[in-house]
Amino acid sequence: MKVLVIGGGGREHALAWKLAQSERVQRVYVAPGNGGTAQDATLHNVPLHTPQELADFAVAEKVALTVVGPEAPLAAGVVDLFRARGLRIFGPTRAAAQLESSKAHAKEFMQRHGIPTALYATFTGAAEAHAHVNKHGAPIVIKADGLAAGKGVVVAMTLEEAHAAIDDMLGSNSIGVQHNAEGARVVIEEFMQGEEASFIVLCDGKNVLTLATSQDHKRIGDGDTGPNTGGMGAYSPAPVVTPDVHARVMREIIHPTISGMAKDGVPYTGFLYAGLMIDAQGQPRTVEFNCRLGDPEAQVILMRLKSDLFEVLMHATDGTLDQVELQWDRRTALGVVMAAHGYPAAPRKGDALTGMPAGTPDLQVFHAGTALDGGTLKVSGGRVLCVTALGDSVRLAQQAALAAVRQIHFDGAQWRNDIGHRGIKSPQAH
Ligand code: AMP
Ligand code: GLY
Fold first, then answer.
1. Which of 34, 171, 193, 347 is the most buried if burial means most Cβ atoms within 10 Å?
2. CB of 188 shorter than 6 A to ligand 1
3. Whether 1 contacts 310, CB under 8 Å
4. Mean pLDDT in residue range 85-105
5. Is ligand 2 within 6 A of the CB of residue 40?
6. Rounded CA gap, 244 and 248, in Å?
7. Is 155 near ligand 1, meaning CB less than 6 Å away?
8. Residue 139 Cα, ligand 2 centroid: separation in angstroms?
9. pTM higher than 0.90, yes or no?
């Protein structure tokens, strides 16, 4: 069987790497892929981008299964197009993907179906938005409605920051939000306190299969300081998701979401990612939905998955996920992202990479922003690598990942030394 993975980041490298391990898979294409998928002899990059090009390729190559990594092709309707042409693809339709592509839609959906989330209001006019912020005070959260590559959220600790974010999102748009059909809108939310976790499931329209839990680290700097990024590292499992919290998430968030989508006439198929805020009492609330795997969450989750991902996704596209039980490595997987000089504001491209360690079953270097230039591996994007290791504890997995990170070199490389810190007990703790 031939498989096509759409995307070119670390998440897609991990998906392709895992799918290539299946005995039933002869060939894995990655469109467009990156320097890492180009170097991997078991994977084949194809320079395709539009849904039309991808569908034509899937027909010509008799691709048995297509898996979509990022949100943009989903919002562009790649699943709708593939299905209309009789092609098997795993992901949500364009209508279902609005759970991620429109924050305003997602909030309205959660409110209507009683799914716990922060209180919110939506604005198109700057004057009303400014008045709302003045009334509620800081901290407060300002979100652009539309895809913004992770940059459309400002957690404003002061009123000044909140007002500036409104002016930017409804005015100059210097962060480059892709507005939805309704035009520029902002969602203003109550600030939620707690610990975040990523809760990702597979859905086939009616059945749900949970993946292992994980936790991302969004800030660029150690100690969760500095600007937000797409994610600087992750580990799995996330201890904050205790069995009790897990049961509540399923009962209060995941099941109502899947049945709510079905009731709304938009059955959900694909990966569904609930970003959670879990408070001190263990009450989970939804920060956001993503209609895809997380990046770098996918890298750590797939590192622990023992089951054949191809088989699982065939069940997911047949509507028989109820027949699947996933097997997990009991150890912790921890991934440290190495980012380019200047990331996230202005990542520098072109720096050459050296010292890449060979992959082993317990250590994988998933590529994201790399490209092969002649025979040389060079930086081509903001997040460059995700160095992912398995270990018997969070600390051991962190040590193994960091040991590999220190062997790798490119000028200006940035990484965090504290990925997994919430899962590592301090020496004083009991
Ligand atoms: P989002 O893109 O909606 O996931 O937001 C990005 C990040 O902003 C989240 O991972 C949280 O750290 C933070 N965030 C978003 N909404 C809230 C909220 N209502 N309260 C506190 N933090 C939030
Ligand atoms: N790591 C966060 C995301 O993929 O949205």
1. 34
2. no
3. yes
4. 93
5. no
6. 6
7. yes
8. 23
9. yes
**Residue-level pLDDT at 151:** 66
Tokens 């991902």 belong to: 309
Question: What is the DSSP code string of 3-40?
Answer: EEEEE-SHHHHHHHHHHTTSTT-SEEEEEE--HHHHH-
Distance, CA 191 to ligand 1 centroid (Å)?
8
pLDDT tens, residue by residue, 242-288: 999 999 999 999 999 999 999 999 999 999 999 999 999 999 999 99
Strand order in the sheet with 43-45: 43-45, 27-32, 2-7, 65-68, 89-90
3-state SS assignment for residue 201: strand
Q: How far apart are CA 282 and CA 310, in angstroms?
A: 35
**pLDDT, tens digit, 9 for 90 and up, residues 358-377:** 999 999 999 999 999 999 99
> Which atom of ligand 2 is nearest to 294's Cα?
4
**Would you state the pLDDT for residue 425?**
75
Helix or strand (DSSP H, E) at 304: helix 297-304
CA-proximal residue: ligand 2, atom 3 (nearest): 294
User: Any idea what DSSP says for residue 118?
Assistant: -
Q: Which of 119, 151, 132, 104 is nearest to 289 (CA)?
A: 104
Mean pLDDT of the chain: 95
The string of pLDDT tens digits covering residues 309-341 is 999 999 999 999 999 999 999 999 999 999 999
Strand 27-32 with 2-7, pairing: parallel
For residue 100 and ligand 2, the question of a CB distance below 6 A is answered with no
Number of other CB atoms surrounding residue 417 within 10 Å: 12
pLDDT of residue 101: 84
